[in-house]
């Protein structure tokens, strides 16, 4: 793991290094998947890159290859018909640990008693406003 950047005070980096025990589900050279110890549903787990990056945009592309395949394998193994994959960036977006991580959260029923309860406060933007935002983002992607 010498080529993997870590941060000494990061709880997830400590889990990666084996300094903090975890219920490890799977591991590759670039990711670690383990059970969430503060689950909001039975089977709630995390997939994290071993490389320490605070936000998704900070994570090098070569460290992303195993993330979605790991989440898909976990979803298939867990056998939940309905589930959420969640990734937050920054405190206002509800990120609690400053290390990129993806939640696999089973949603066993339509009520909000178990699993992720999500509101979708759609903004009332005009097509002109959407087009303007599109042009700004698209221009920066090129």
Radius of gyration: 17 Å
- When the domains are counted, the total is 1
Low-pLDDT stretches are none
pLDDT averaged over residues: 90
Strand residue percentage: 15-25%
Biggest sheet: strand arrangement: 1-2-3-5-4
Report the principal-axis shape: globular
Fraction in helix: 10-25%
CATH top level?
Alpha Beta
* CATH topology name: HIT family, subunit A
Give a short account of the largest sheet.
Answer: 5 strands, antiparallel
Task: Quickly count the helices.
Answer: 3
Describe the structure.
The chain is α+β, with helices and mostly antiparallel strands. The protein has one domain (11-141): HIT-like (HIT family, subunit A, 2-Layer Sandwich), CATH 3.30.428. It is 23% helix and 16% strand. It has three helices and five strands; from the N terminus they run αβββαββα. The protein has helices at 11-16, 67-78, 127-141, and strands at 24-27, 31-35, 45-49, 83-86, 102-106. The chain has a five-stranded antiparallel β-sheet, with helices on one face. The two termini are 34 Å apart. The mean pLDDT is 90.
């Amino acid at each position: 793991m010498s080529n993997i950047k870590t941060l000494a005070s990061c709880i997830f980096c400590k889990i990666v290094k084996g300094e903090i025990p975890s219920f490890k589900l799977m591991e590759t050279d670039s990711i670690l998947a383990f059970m969430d110890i503060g689950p909001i549903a039975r089977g709630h787990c995390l997939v994290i890159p071993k490389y320490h990056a605070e936000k998704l945009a900070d994570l090098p592309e070569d460290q992303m290859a195993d993330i979605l395949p790991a989440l898909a394998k976990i979803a298939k193994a867990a056998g939940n018909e309905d589930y959420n994959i969640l990734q937050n960036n920054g405190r206002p977006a509800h990120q609690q640990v400053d290390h990129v991580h993806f939640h696999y959260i089973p949603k066993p029923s339509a009520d909000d008693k178990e699993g992720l309860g999500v509101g979708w406060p759609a903004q009332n933007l005009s097509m002109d406003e959407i087009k303007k935002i599109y042009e700004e983002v698209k221009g920066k992607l090129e």
